[in-house]
Design a protein that fits this description.
Length: 112
Amino acid sequence: MGNPRYANGALRRKYRARFRAMGCPCGICQGRLGPIHYDEPSDAQHPLSFVIDEIRPVSRWREFGYDSPRAAAEDWSNLQPAHYWCNAQKSNHTGDAPVVSVKNHFIRDGRW
Ligand SMILES: [Zn+2]
């Protein structure tokens, strides 16, 4: 059984391109660490490089009503851009803290 995140590489690349075009700040730190380095490769050598973060962890797909891990990994509303570093920190803490989607954040915060 492969990693569901990479089951559909073409879709994944499309999502990456869309996030890059939007230029959103990191959904985990809300941009506190600075802008995402969208042009860097996603790896530990560039802690602020761009990765796609699953808001609801793919490993808990049943809990969130998805049909499969792949469905969770491919649901646009379940994805947000994040720094490599923030994503790694979140994984270490198994996602106990509620994570606010950057997309929802923009809708909710109407003060500016
Ligand atoms: Zn971040």
